[in-house]
């Protein structure tokens, strides 16, 4: 049954949004960029930096007095910061891309053997992205018998997260914001094109494939529960997914967002506004996800059909966003995904 469903995207690729030609120059892209910068991206950086600072402080307090109450605070602050990261991750343009925040903060699963064997590894090296960030903290805080035995490593990891968050936020607010808003043209290097590509790539690769498709075994021969996000904290994986999905939906449907852009251009598909169809798919995915186990590793083990259905709902919006929307807005895809979609 699901093999048939995976053929659906190939059929949908033949469909084009209506009308086939629209005047993207008639929309005020600069005003939209200002809204994105001031109302979405910079606030997301500020919230994440604040959460990272709180987490770093609680880990330092735990290192001083490794007691159960302090550990509970660390775990709560970890979850808060991890959720905050989901709201920022879609927007890796400029400083976020240059600092490789996605790679350094959330490559999972973490390499557990190297994490323990190389506790003093140079975290700036690209080869060490899988022994740092939130997945490494997840293992140390929830997957070891006594996190107090790893307090120095916890401090190194949270210091690194706070450093990266601070660097990216400072760059955005001091210099890059003005450059970002001014670059309002319609080209592959313009801010709208880069932001939308970052968003669509994140939706396809990180939200759809990373959080759902890979642990559900869509690209392999069966479920891979050990590939679920937040593997050790367990009941956090669904919450992380929903936070990311809401971030995507809110960005698309913002006051000056992609839905506004599409509607201003009158883009339709099969008689409906394209924005209406995209909104409907966001809602369908959220409804499907809400019915799943809070722990996606448990979900794929006990009832993988639910995860496959969620993947299908997400995949339908990949077509609407990556093909129909980008075509309507005259934005070329600047990334390559090789997972067969």
UniProtKB/TrEMBL annotation:
Places the protein is found: Cell envelope
Domain of life of the organism encoding this protein: Bacteria
Domain called Imelysin-like: residue spans: 41-315
Main location group: other
UniProt keyword annotations, A-Z: Signal
Entry keyword Signal: yes
Protein name: Imelysin-like domain-containing protein
Organism: Neolewinella maritima
């Amino acid at each position: 049954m699901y093999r048939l469903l995976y053929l659906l995207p190939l059929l949908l690729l033949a469909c084009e949004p209506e009308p086939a030609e629209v005047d993207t120059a008639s929309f005020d892209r600069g005003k939209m960029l200002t809204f994105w910068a001031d109302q979405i991206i910079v606030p997301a950086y500020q919230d994440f930096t604040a959460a990272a600072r709180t987490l770093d402080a609680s880990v330092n307090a735990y290192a001083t007095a490794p007691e159960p109450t302090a550990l509970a605070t660390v775990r709560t602050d970890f979850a808060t910061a991890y959720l905050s990261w989901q709201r920022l991750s879609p927007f890796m343009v400029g400083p976020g891309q240059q600092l490789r925040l996605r790679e350094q903060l959330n490559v999972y699963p973490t390499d557990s053997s190297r994490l323990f064997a190389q506790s003093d590894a140079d975290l700036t090296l690209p080869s060490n992205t899988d022994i740092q960030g939130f997945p490494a903290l997840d293992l140390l805080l929830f997957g070891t018998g006594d996190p107090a035995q790893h307090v120095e490593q916890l401090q190194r990891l949270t210091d690194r997260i706070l450093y990266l968050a601070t660097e990216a936020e400072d760059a955005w607010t001091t210099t890059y914001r003005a450059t970002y808003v001014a670059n309002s043209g319609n080209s592959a290097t313009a801010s709208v094109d880069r932001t939308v590509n970052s968003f669509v790539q994140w939706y396809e690769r990180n939200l759809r494939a990373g959080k759902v498709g890979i642990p559900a075994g869509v690209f392999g021969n069966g479920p891979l529960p050990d590939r679920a996000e937040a593997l050790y904290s367990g009941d956090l994986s669904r919450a992380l997914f929903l936070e990311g999905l809401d971030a995507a939906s809110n960005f698309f449907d913002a006051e000056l967002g992609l839905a506004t852009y599409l509607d201003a251009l009158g883009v339709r598909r099969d008689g409906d506004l394209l924005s209406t169809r995209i909104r409907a798919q966001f809602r369908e995915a959220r409804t499907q996800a809400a019915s799943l186990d809070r722990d996606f590793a448990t979900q794929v083990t006990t009832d993988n059909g639910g995860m496959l259905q969620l993947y299908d709902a997400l995949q339908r919006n990949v077509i609407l966003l990556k093909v129909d929307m980008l075509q309507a807005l005259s934005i070329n895809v600047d990334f390559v995904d090789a997972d067969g979609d």
